[in-house]
From TrEMBL:
Positions of transmembrane segments: 129-150
Keywords: Endoplasmic reticulum, Glycosyltransferase, Membrane, Transferase, Transmembrane, Transmembrane helix
Tree of life domain: Eukaryota
PANTHER family in the record: BETA1,4 MANNOSYLTRANSFERASE, CHITOBIOSYLDIPHOSPHODOLICHOL BETA-MANNOSYLTRANSFERASE
All copies of domain Glycosyltransferase subfamily 4-like N-terminal, residue ranges: 88-244
One GO cellular component term: endoplasmic reticulum membrane
Organism ancestry: Eukaryota, Viridiplantae, Streptophyta, Embryophyta, Tracheophyta
Name listed for the protein in its UniProt record: Glycosyltransferase subfamily 4-like N-terminal domain-containing protein
Membrane topology: Single-pass membrane protein
């Protein structure tokens, strides 16, 4: 699979053939992601929001408010919008979002970007309230918080750009404030909120049907709309009556193939996390001591120079929110198949002691079949479940690590990998996995569950 390298203009179209790559017997296949056309985002944004003119020194500088009813550190597309508006369109940008994870350093240090953090609404103390009433109470509190921040905490913007989903109550709150403050109201459609709610409640549930009406009604009240794929654009146009512009993501400059020095420095920082096995010892944890700074799992530093280790493992990278729309059992089954296939090819028995293999790895022996190191980043509800499954696999030549990275380290880890994996299966079947765009930015080939672009 050919990864898409960064360019100043999007490719003319999709020119590569899709080829199914079975990753687990009897299960869904992964399909190498073809090249997705990508475009700088500022021209389309500026068409709706406007930008400072050449004669505009005496004119008030244009201002945009980017609204995310969620963790801005886990909303890369909205971070890219903010960077584009500030750096390319010359606008002041106010980000109103929940706290949690730090956004990228380039946002935090940009003098034109101002981040306003709202507290996340937790209803842990009202467990006796029914599910529907709890959702209603949470939405009411969030609505009041949004109105307060958008009306009184930020200067009047020329345009509000709100991420969808979540739809409730974000779309209604931003619509009300845009009317009160005389600003444009733009929705950036990443997915459909009612389909995500339907994963846990079922599409026929009355709450999901009300959510669908709310999302459609207030979505149609926007002054403009962006979406992530042509398939979503068609759905919005044909069934929702919304005319949206497809805005493909262009990964920022900090997504690039990592140099050997960057790889060495990154894995020195991640030393403890990488060298600590999930459960008993594995083919990565037995290789070196954490305190040894002359080598990492991928590189060695010799006489001031950094070199790849001859017996380094292949690094496979994935990121996830650990939710039901990503079935990581597929990847675990594929890892087990690889481990068993190599053992069978080399004539090893299942009962064989790993001791000699650990000694060979530690001594630097090169193998015909590489070890595989899977690093999976992200936070989410299903993380512990899959970590327990990984511990029970008893793999010899495959190791897994799960972690949460600083926003500056995530692009470097992608740029250090040999292969990217995306197991995202959309609740709507229409959204675009952002991780694939970031992987392409790092020149990384990607195996992904098939999706419509």
């Amino acid at each position: 699979v050919q990864g898409l390298r960064r360019s100043s203009a999007p490719p003319p179209g999709l020119t590569e053939q899709r080829r199914s790559v079975p990753i687990a017997a009897g299960r869904r296949s992964l399909t190498p992601s073809t090249c997705i056309p990508r475009a700088a985002i500022s021209p389309s944004l500026c068409a709706c929001a406007g930008s400072t003119t050449m004669a505009g020194e005496a004119e008030r500088r244009k201002r945009a408010a980017v609204v995310v009813l969620g963790d801005i550190g886990r909303s890369p597309r909205m971070q890219y919008h903010s960077l584009s508006l500030a750096s390319q369109a010359g606008m002041e940008v106010d980000i109103v979002a929940n706290g949690g994870s730090d956004p990228h350093l380039s946002l935090r240090e940009n003098p034109s970007i101002h981040i306003h953090e709202m507290k996340s609404v937790q209803l842990s103390g009202v467990s006796k309230i029914s599910g529907a009433l709890a959702l209603l109470l949470k939405a009411a509190i969030q609505f009041i918080m949004l109105i307060w921040f958008l009306c009184f905490k930020i200067p009047r913007p020329d345009v509000f750009i709100v991420q969808n989903p979540p739809s409730v109550p974000a779309l209604a709150a931003v619509k009300v404030v845009s009317w009160l403050r005389g600003a444009k109201f733009i929705v950036d459609w990443h997915n459909f909120g009612y389909t995500l709610l339907g994963l846990s409640h079922g599409r026929s549930n009355v709450i999901v049907k009300i959510y669908f009406w709310f999302e459609k009604h207030f979505g149609r009240m926007a002054d403009g709309a962006f979406c992530v794929t042509k398939a979503m654009q068609h759905e919005l146009s044909q069934n929702w009556g919304i005319k949206a512009t497809v805005l493909y993501d262009h990964s920022p400059e900090f997504f690039h193939p990592a140099s050997l020095t960057e790889k060495y420095e990154l894995f020195c920082r991640l030393g403890t996390s990488i060298c600590s096995a999930m459960g008993s010892a594995d083919c990565i944890s037995v290789e070196k001591e954490v305190e040894d700074k002359s080598t990492t799992v991928l590189t060695s530093k010799i006489d001031g120079g950094v070199f790849f280790k001859p017996n380094r493992p292949a690094l496979v990278m994935s990121s996830t929110s650990w939710t039901p729309d990503e079935d990581f059992s597929i990847l675990l089954e594929a890892a087990l198949m690889y481990d068993r296939r190599v053992a069978a090819t080399l004539g090893e028995e299942d009962s064989m002691d790993e001791g000699q293999l650990w000694i060979d790895i530690k001594s630097g022996k090169q193998f015909d079949y590489p070890r595989l190191l899977f690093i999976i980043t992200g936070k989410g509800p299903d993380r512990k479940k899959y970590e327990e499954q990984i511990k029970r696999l008893k793999l010899r030549r495959v190791a897994f690590r799960t972690m949460w990275l600083a926003s500056e380290d995530y692009p470097l880890l992608l740029g250090s990998a040999d292969l990217g994996v995306s197991l995202h299966t959309s609740s709507s079947g229409l959204d675009l996995p952002m991780k694939v765009v970031d992987m392409f930015g790092c020149g990384l080939p990607v195996c992904a569950a098939s999706f419509s672009w």
